[in-house]
Structures are given as C-alpha cells and as structure tokens.
Design a protein that fits this description.
Length: about 325
C-alpha cells in the first residue's frame, strides 16, 4: 500500500515537474506547439513506456535510477535541448533529447534493443568512457532522409558530438562540443548511422569514436576522434583517418587499413602498431601487384612484407599467371 502511494506521488511529481520545467523553459504557446508535433508526442510516449518498465526493477536499482531521472527532468532536458536549438528547431531539439533519454533507459538500464529508430531527421547514440564521462553523438538529416527510405542512402547535414561529465553525482555538464556541419562527402554505400563505431583505436583502455567520412568504389575512410585522458577531451586524429576500412585487432594490438586499392590488380592491406597517442609505425603489408604490362603471358604478384622501425626487413613474392 505504501509503495503504491509512493508510486502515485511520484507520477504526480513527474507530471508537475515536467509542467513547471516547461513553464520555465518555454511559453505555454511554445509548449502547445510542441504537443502538436507527432514525433515529439511519440518520443514522450516512448520515454514514459520505458519508465514504466524501470519501475518494475528491483528497488535498489529503481531507487538509483529515480535519482538520476529526477536530475534529468529538473535540469538536463532543458540544458541539452537549448544546446541543440543552435542547430535545429525547438521541436526537433526537445524530440531528440527525449528520444535520447528513452534510448538510454532502454539500452543501459533495461538492456532492451527491440526499439527501432522511427523518428524522422534525427539519430543519436552514446558510449561510456568512464563511470562519470560519456560521449554522445547526434546525426541530423535533411527532410529527404527517413527511416523508411533508409538513412544509409544519405549523409547527415550535421553531426554533433559532445563529451558529458557527471560531477559528484549531482550535476551533468558538457565539457566539449564538436560540430561537423555541412557534411559533403560521398557516402554512397555507407550504412549511416550503423557504421558509427566506438573502439579503442590506440589501445590505451579508453573507447574512441569514428564516423564515416568519404567512400569510393573500394576504399572507405572514417573521421576518428581519440579520447585524451590527460586533457579529458576528444581529439581528431589525421593519421588514423588515412587508413581505408580502418579496424583494430585488440589481441595483437594492431591497427590496420584493410582495403588499399590503386588498380584492378593492386590491392593490399597494411598493419601498424601505435606508439604513444596516435603515432603509427608500419609492421606488416600483404597484397597483390601488377606484373610488367609487356609481360607475355601477363602475370601478377602476391606478396607479404614485414617492417621494423618503419623499414621493410623481409618480403616474399609469388607469381600468378593470367589464364
């Protein structure tokens, strides 16, 4: 009975707190305009559905999430929306932050990945770096891009990246903001936003962020941001961005470009070790090369090469004749 009374009181506080918050952040007219937008209403419905599931969790977990949810309602929803209003409309801003909160409850608290992104124009994600620091990214699309058409056919008009920090468990602040506006690269073939990845590219124990950059018929490149634990910021790395089809081997602590290409018979991969923060030293290469154009019959080579201190120390080759 007591638990039921507490639940009712919380719902009332939730509702009143929300209304008071909007009264401070928005005029009544502006809030009514928000409520006319289907995407915003759907976002709030999704958040409320997730919260109902959270209430069914064990009391210790629920109590902790409740504190965090109150903080978000009191401060962070408006704070994050106001930051987005520099780039999108008020309606889109509040829709985005509400959806982001719903996804957080679903994936981080409830571990529910069944929801699909049905919102138009906006997609976001987040990744914890430490217990009090996380990356959040947001992709904003033109009206031509919709989930039904497939985001993979479009590049975002703007990509926003934030680094958020919790201090003393009482407040959450943005410590860095990066805006990649007017994206104009060739994204055909990319699976936006599915190829936004969090990996430890320099093997320092912290997740880094990569976003699709440019793509040709074979080679694809990414924009890579490395987390700098000393500065507590994300730093863009030009050296990592020169590796096509970049990937990491965490067991061997090697990073590589796995789709170098210059002609039909010249394709290769290169692997590197990371020295310091983002210095790359080549350790291995493997691929194919064209034989002489006047060779009769024509042949191509397959090869493997090993490197030390950036210099080739061994190489094996094998000829293959065109049949």
């Amino acid at each position: 009975m007591i638990k039921h009374i507490f639940f009712v009181l919380f719902l009332l506080a939730f509702f009143l707190g929300t209304q008071a918050r909007y009264a401070l952040a928005l005029s009544n007219t502006e809030y009514e305009e928000l409520r006319k937008d289907t995407a915003f209403v759907n976002a709030e419905t999704r958040l409320n559905t997730a919260w109902e599931k959270v209430q069914q969790l064990p009391s210790a977990v629920y109590s902790q999430v409740l504190k965090d949810q109150r903080l978000w309602l009191r401060n962070m929803r408006d704070f994050e929306a106001h930051k987005l209003e520099k780039f999108v409309s008020t309606t889109k801003a509040y829709t985005l932050v509400t959806l982001d909160r719903a996804r957080y409850l679903e994936k981080e608290i409830l571990h529910d990945t069944s929801h699909k992104n049905t919102e138009k124009n906006i997609y976001g994600g987040r990744k914890n770096i430490t217990k009090d620091l996380y990356i959040r990214y947001t992709c904003i699309y033109s009206d031509d891009a919709t989930p039904e058409k497939g985001y993979g056919d479009y590049a975002p008009d703007t990509v926003l990246i934030w680094l958020f920090e919790k201090k003393g468990g009482k407040e959450e602040t943005s410590v860095q903001e990066i805006n990649l506006a007017n994206v104009s690269s060739n994204y055909e073939g990319w699976n936006w936003p599915g190829e936004v990845e969090f990996k430890d590219y320099n093997f320092d124990g912290y997740p880094d962020l990569s976003l699709p950059s440019t793509a040709g018929n074979v080679m694809r490149f990414s924009t890579v941001f490395l987390y700098n634990p000393e500065k507590r910021i994300l730093e863009r790395s030009s050296s990592f961005e020169e590796l096509p089809c970049i990937d990491v081997d965490p067991k061997r602590k090697r990073i590589g470009g796995y789709c170098f290409h210059s002609s039909a018979c010249e394709n290769w991969i290169e692997e590197y070790k990371v020295i310091g923060f983002d210095t790359l030293e080549k350790t291995f290469a493997e691929g194919t090369e064209c034989g002489p154009l006047d060779a009769d019959p024509f042949y191509y080579l397959t090869y493997q090469a090993k490197y030390k201190n950036g210099k080739e120390i061994s190489r094996t080759e094998e000829k293959h004749f065109d049949e």
